[in-house]
Design a protein that fits this description.
This is FMN hydroxy acid dehydrogenase domain-containing protein. GO terms for molecular function: oxidoreductase activity. With 513 residues, the chain is α/β, with parallel strands linked by helices. The protein has 2 domains: 1-40; 136-511, Aldolase class I (TIM Barrel). Helix content is 50%, strand content 9%. It contains 24 helices and 12 strands. The protein has helices at 5-15, 17-31, 34-44, 47-53, 55-60, 64-70, 75-89, 100-110, 113-119, 127-134, 180-183, 189-199, 214-224, 241-254, 272-277, 290-293, 296-305, 307-310, 324-335, 359-369, 382-391, 412-429, 446-454, 464-495, and strands at 139-141, 156-160, 163-167, 171-173, 205-206, 232-235, 259-262, 374-379, 395-398, 437-439, 459-462, 509-511. The strands form 3 sheets. An 8-stranded parallel beta sheet has the order 4-11-10-9-8-7-6-5. The protein has a two-stranded antiparallel sheet with strand order 1-12. The longest helix is centred in the last third of the chain and has 32 residues, at 464-495. The radius of gyration is 24 Å and the shape is globular. The two termini are 30 Å apart.
Length: 513
């Protein structure tokens, strides 16, 4: 039975809080289905209906601009909360939802079916994807009330290679490839998301397969907010040494502050939705790969290997002129964009250089020659964490690629405590300080972020949430959903009696077995 919002309120009026909770749970459960979600949307979030209900407010309150000038500065975090409330007073509902279920629905309505299949691509039976979110319920926050806390400081500090990093928040935007998919036919999706993150001081991680070149994204961040942290660059290690080196040197020259090496793409995930839809994202003729087309080494490889097919498509100066179809298909077939075997090795140019595939080579080159911290993304097992510390890397990201790569795996929040302990113990045995450990996959709210920090994470990375924000509202949409997450974290911290992210300790939580 589907319970409507009106029925919920009627039950509350008749029977009180406990029955109301039961009905509300049923409402939320039913709202997850398309039909009831549509009804929920229509009844409670109809723009015209809201405007009609709030007409009296517009007569009683001063003009919105006047009231806004009278209100205190709520800061970048609190602004999203009060903007929503005060716009609502005047009958306006924000275009970009903060409720995750409504945001997902709006995203699906906004983009193409292919884009939805791509963003929500999940491996196998989706068990890893679901566990990433469900396992947060294993831990519950225990609020403190007598601490006198009225505000929270989200400033996050950590050290890599002896350099101190200070971030405005513990939140970062995870690397997401070819973001032009969510803004098509506008090809600047990466720039919208990067600019939104820069506006509020949230670090941005550039993907190897971004729609825009490294240099353009770094420039956008700097031009948006000179005080914003410089982006980091994520690398899918190529089968061709020269191409990986070219990307890494470009990242260094552009001003990126760290390199993130993704480890969990040894083989392309078994993503049933993509298979059933017959949609292979890298073969989408509409979405070019800006990183490759802007790289002279990539262009040289393409021109040399496919002289009979595509040499006429590349000018001598390396300018990208090949069609999107040839670019995307030839990119994977000849260069091995992934760290592993997305395509048959016979298609990779010979001779293939192998030494750079080792972590030792990458540590020496990135942290030695380039003098940049190397962060390994995709760690889930404590033995891998211990090995990474012994190899001398600067940081880790506990990640399972958002459940896109392998099904039936441990969630990242469940893997986090053992990885943290392994890093701490191995560093102690070597007489070193522990390296920072970040985490991603499945984070949807402030409580999720707080729980990860309490379990020892240095910071949290999010990918799908800002992508949906960018799709629905461009730069402003991405900014709104990121602010929403931070506002939620801020409210959760204050209401739990925690004044500083560095004061979030394990005793903030109890495990609910």
């Amino acid at each position: 039975m589907c319970i409507s919002p009106r029925q919920v309120l009627q039950v509350y009026a008749r029977t009180g809080t406990r029955a109301f909770r039961t009905a509300a749970v049923a409402l939320r459960r039913d709202a997850a289905t398309p039909s009831s979600s549509d009804a929920f949307q229509e009844r409670l979030f109809n723009v015209d209906d809201v405007a009609e209900r709030r007409k009296e407010n517009q007569q009683l309150y001063p003009p919105r601009e006047v009231l806004k000038a009278m209100l205190p500065d709520m800061g970048l975090v609190g602004a999203v909360q009060w903007q929503s409330y005060w716009d609502g007073v005047y009958g306006k509902i924000q275009d970009v939802p903060l409720d995750v279920e409504r945001l997902e629905k709006k995203f699906v309505e906004t983009v193409s079916p292919d884009c939805t299949v791509w963003l929500f691509g999940r491996a196998g039976l989706h068990d890893t994807y679901r566990s990433n979110m469900d396992d947060f319920n294993r831990w519950k926050i225990v609020p403190r009330m007598l601490t006198g806390v009225t505000a929270a400081d989200l400033t996050t500090r950590f050290t890599m290679m002896g350099k101190s990093f200070t971030m405005a928040t513990p939140l970062s935007v995870a690397p997401v490839g070819v973001q032009a998919r969510v803004t098509y036919p506008d090809m600047t999706g990466d720039l919208y998301t990067a600019a939104a993150a820069a506006e509020i001081g949230v670090p941005f991680v550039i993907s190897t397969v971004s729609s825009q070149p490294i240099e353009k994204i770094v420039e956008t961040v700097t031009n948006t907010n000179i005080l914003a942290p410089k982006p980091w660059f994520q690398l899918y290690n190529s089968s061709v040494t020269a191409l990986s080196v070219s990307y890494l040197k470009r990242a260094k020259a552009a001003g990126c502050e760290a390199i993130v090496l993704t480890l969990d793409t040894t083989k392309y995930g078994y993503r049933t939705e993509e298979l059933d839809a017959g949609y292979f994202p890298q073969a989408d003729v509409r979405i070019p790969w800006g990183q490759g087309r802007s790289d002279p080494t990539f262009n040289g490889i393409m021109k040399g290997q496919f002289n009979s097919v595509a040499s006429e498509q590349f000018s001598d100066d390396g300018k990208y002129e090949v069609s999107a179809l040839k670019t995307n298909m030839l990119t994977l077939a000849t260069v091995g964009v992934s760290a592993g075997d997305v395509w048959d090795k016979e298609k990779v140019p010979e001779p293939v250089d192998k030494p750079h595939q080792s972590i030792d080579w990458m540590v020496d080159f990135v942290q030695g020659e380039l003098d940049l911290p190397l962060v390994l993304k995709g760690i889930q097992h404590p033995d891998d964490a211990r090995m990474a510390v012994r190899k001398g890397v600067s940081g880790l990201v506990v990640s399972n690629h958002g459940g896109r790569q392998a099904d039936g795996c441990i969630s990242t929040i469940a893997a986090l405590p053992a990885v943290i302990a392994a890093v701490r113990d191995e560093a102690k045995a070597l007489g070193k300080d522990p390296i920072p450990v970040f985490v991603d996959s499945g984070f949807r709210c402030g409580a999720h972020i707080l729980k990860a920090l309490a379990l020892g994470a240095t910071g949290v990375w999010v990918g799908r949430i800002p992508m949906m924000g960018t799709a629905v509202g461009g730069q402003d949409g991405a900014k709104r959903v990121l602010q929403g997450l931070l506002c939620d974290l801020d409210c959760t911290m204050v209401n739990a009696g925690i004044a500083d992210v560095h004061n979030i300790k394990s005793d903030t939580l109890v495990e609910d077995r």
